[in-house]
Design goal:
mainly beta; 13 strands; 1 helix; twelve-stranded antiparallel barrel
């Protein structure tokens, strides 16, 4: 008898097909939205590590999604990690308050003479971002973000318990085209404190093109601090559809070797 049970390859194909169909739907919705009133300026939290101090407008929904690849060494073992798609859903619920939901399908390949592959759904992160105050003189624009990583998803990727994460998002408009943004970060991983930081400078080189450069790092309790740098580009294809790409590398041996990010963001109208 022939088996009618789906193979892991066919399941992956179905997952990727669903992702492609979802992408097509949101792109069509974005194109349709062009015929409506011009939306507020689109500000995203990707592809850099610095979260924006701008909160989603009320009654608007923004989807930020993409592909992530990272390579690292753990002793003599080579570790390659993928996340496809990484998906952040941001929902403006009140003036100055948004809810956010973050998840990713993860895939890790460990090579040490032989290949070992792990894949599955990563944990779900839920949270909120609240506006604190607007920029005024030397006072930066500020927002406070709080989210919790839940013990959900594949058992090989999920934490043993809920893990809180907080960051203070700050930014200065240095000129009409240059912005300096930075985050003060604190979270927990498996009960260990993980403070961190990010700092990013972005430059609008044209109406639809923005480039950025960034440094960031973190230090898990009992471990050396890891520092990284990255740079990337954002292209506003439509007023509410943005494409992006970034490349990052380590600044010291405690950080991963390098990573690549690419993806898109789309905002649905009121």
């Amino acid at each position: 008898m022939y088996s009618i049970m789906p193979t892991s390859a066919s399941v992956r194909c179905v997952c990727h097909l669903k992702y492609l169909l979802t992408f097509c739907v949101v792109v069509l919705l974005a194109i349709r939205a062009i015929a409506q009133d011009e939306p507020p300026e689109m500000i995203t939290d990707r592809p850099d590590q610095t979260e924006s101090s701008v909160v989603m407008p009320r009654n608007m929904v923004q989807l930020e999604s993409g592909f992530f690849f990272q390579k690292d060494w753990e002793g003599a073992r080579e570790l390659k990690s993928h996340a496809y798609p990484t998906t952040l859903l941001r929902v403006g619920v009140l003036e100055g308050l948004e809810l956010l939901f973050l998840a990713a399908y993860r895939d890790s390949v460990i090579q040490n003479g032989e290949r070992r592959k792990l894949e599955g759904m990563g944990p779900l992160s839920v949270g909120a971002k609240a506006k604190l105050w607007d920029e005024k003189g030397w006072l930066p624009q500020a927002a406070l973000l709080f989210r919790v990583l839940l013990p959900t998803g594949d058992r090989r990727f999920r934490p043993s318990g809920a893990e809180p994460h907080m960051r203070l998002n700050l930014s200065h408009a240095l000129t009409s085209k240059i912005e300096f943004a930075y985050n003060l970060v604190h979270g927990w991983s498996e009960g260990k404190s993980v403070p961190g930081y990010t700092a990013s400078v972005s430059y609008e080189i044209a109406d639809k093109f923005t480039v950025f450069a960034e440094v960031f790092g973190s230090k898990e309790e009992g471990e050396p601090a890891g520092h990284q740098a990255d740079a990337g580009i954002l292209f506003l294809l439509l007023p509410n559809l943005q494409l992006d790409a970034a490349f990052g590398t380590r600044l010291n041996s405690a950080a991963p070797d390098y990573f690549i990010i690419t993806g898109f963001s789309v905002r649905l109208p009121r």
